[in-house]
Amino acid sequence: MILSDGTLKKYMEEGSLKVSPLCEQSVQPASIDLRLGSHYLVVESSEMDCITLSDEIKYRELESDTLTIPAHSFLLATTMETVELPDNLTAFVEGRSSVGRIGLFIQNAGWVDPGFKGQITLELYNANSLPIKLEAGRRICQLVVCSMDKAAEKPYDGKYQGQKRSTGSRVFLDI
């Protein structure tokens, strides 16, 4: 079940769901708007001839309040907010419709598992034929929180737990 604004506020007031720093206008009828941070990662293509699932990917870090993503380009970004989900809630991140309508596709590789704590890394792709200027602090996506039928027996404790800033792929650590 997707949580309503009233339930989201209740869980945040109780402290079981944490989103910080939170702006009052961020709570929407069925989601919480998250803002773009100022840290980015770009694949360092000059140091690799191919990306594989077995090798660590080389990234170039960028820190800026504004960044222009060229047409048909990909980069990783982070949310300003740190999110902490209790063991009985899960969430997914959706791009805001207004942002998608300019050709900026936002993904976070799917699901935010129960028990996750950290900033959320966003995968951004500019599908437009023009560059798009990004600005830190702008509402970029929304966190849709769902109630589970019961608390997870094994809450998330994976390779992205506690991430700060944009975090590159760690798929090479998979067994």
State the gist of this model.
The protein is mostly beta strands and 175 residues long. The protein has helices spanning 5-14, 97-100; strands spanning 18-20, 27-28, 31-43, 59-63, 66-69, 74-84, 89-95, 104-107, 111-112, 117-126, 132-135, 139-147. The chain is built from two helices and twelve strands.
Gap between N and C termini: 33 Å
Spell out the CATH superfamily. Deoxyuridine triphosphatase (dUTPase)
Q: Treating each run of at least 4 consecutive H or I residues as one helix, how many helices? A: 2
Radius of gyration: 16 Å
Indicate the percent of residues in helices.
under 10%
The number of domains is 1
Which CATH-level-2 architecture? Distorted Sandwich
Sheet of most strands: 10 strands, antiparallel
Described by the principal axes of the CA atoms, the overall outline is globular
Q: So what's the CATH class?
A: Mainly Beta
Catalogue the unreliable spans.
none
